[in-house]
Amino acid sequence: MDEIDWSEKSLDSLLTETEKYTPLAEIGNHSKIPHVNILLLGRISSGKSSFFNTVDSVIKGRLSHRSRAGCASSSLTKSLDVYKVKGRKTSGALNFRMVDCRGLEEDQSVNSRDVEAILDGHVMDGYVFNQSTPITKDNPKFRKDPTLADRIHCVIFVVDGSNPPEITMSQNVEKQVKELQEMMNRRKIPQLILLTKVDTMATAKEDLSKVFHSRSVLEMRDKVAMSFGLPPYTVLPMQNLANSPTVSKEIKILTLYNLRQVLRAADDFLENQEEEISGDKYLGAQTESY
Fold first, then answer.
1. Can you state the angle between helices 171-187 and 215-228, rounded to 10 degrees?
2. What's the CA angle centered on 228, arms 59 and 3, to 5 degrees?
3. What is the pTM of this model?
4. Residues 6+ apart with CB under 8 A from 120
5. Nearest-5° angle of CA 172, CA 177, CA 180?
6. Which of 35, 118, 128, 268 falls 20 to 30 Å from 96 in CA-CA distance?
7. Which tops the pLDDT comparison, 74 or 274?
8. Dihedral of CA 13/16/18/23: which sign?
């Protein structure tokens, strides 16, 4: 993992890199993939919606409240929300989309069949989740013939860093996560973990620029990685704006650094699909099972 430079020059560089990002730019852009799709998953109140608001705020240069965020006993996200981000120096949206999904809950959660359809690109923006009934191909929000460009290219599991993993990953939630991970693994979709609220941990609370060297953050990183069955380097420490009244330089740099890791993971996934992108196999998932 790259060493972070916390200077203003680094901030400008990260912002420029984000605004100029194009899928597969390193190996030649393919017009069939105009943007990458990033799925946000996690328990309620873990910081999914706040993460998008933070990304949007950092890039816009002002506080953004586009995604409803907060604490509640049930998920505030009731529908599939696909968010575009506009850059300060660009007229259109940047080349990534953030897909906010209903939160994982102890008693109620997003239907696994819905998640499977989302991964395969079948579910359109605005689809309202129904716990008892997953989406069917007769639903107006069902995309019958998705291409690779419609699918999910990277998944972020958002985890509340202020709680120990045994609370975050209760037995029921862990069962849900493992089922979803099996779907992702079959599709070889990269998974990252966003460890939010690191400002509640001792060293990071004092100085966010020391977040990657904080003993408490590193210990939590290892525990969370183990609970998800993923390598520690897939864990990205994060402080959302929900816990900060201002957009500090450190929050901006950490946000853009983490976003860069996500976009690189999405590129890695697409690079493995190069044969499908360039050949006649450019087809979406089949609809027979829906």
1. 70
2. 45
3. 0.91
4. 146, 151, 187, 284, 285
5. 130
6. 128
7. 274
8. negative
Give the C-alpha separation, 214 to 207, whole Å: 10
Query: Residue 240, class by beta-carbon neighbours within 10 Å (0-12 exposed, 13-18 middle, 19+ buried)?
Result: buried
Helix ranges (DSSP H) in 161-273: 165-168, 171-187, 202-206, 215-228, 249-271
Beta pairing, strands 81-86 & 93-100: antiparallel
User: Residue 248 pLDDT more than 80?
Assistant: yes
Report residue 262 as tokens. Answer: 């996500």
> Comparing C-alpha atoms, which of 195, 243, 183 is closest to residue 42?
195
> Which parts of the chain are beta strand (E)?
36-42, 81-86, 93-100, 154-160, 191-196, 235-237
Per-residue pLDDT tens over the stretch 51-75: 999 999 999 888 887 766 544 444 4
Task: Give the model's confidence band at 242: pLDDT under 50 very low, under 70 low, under 90 confident, else very high.
Answer: low
Q: For 171, how many CA atoms within 13 A lie in the half-sphere containing its CB? A: 0
145 residue type, one letter: D
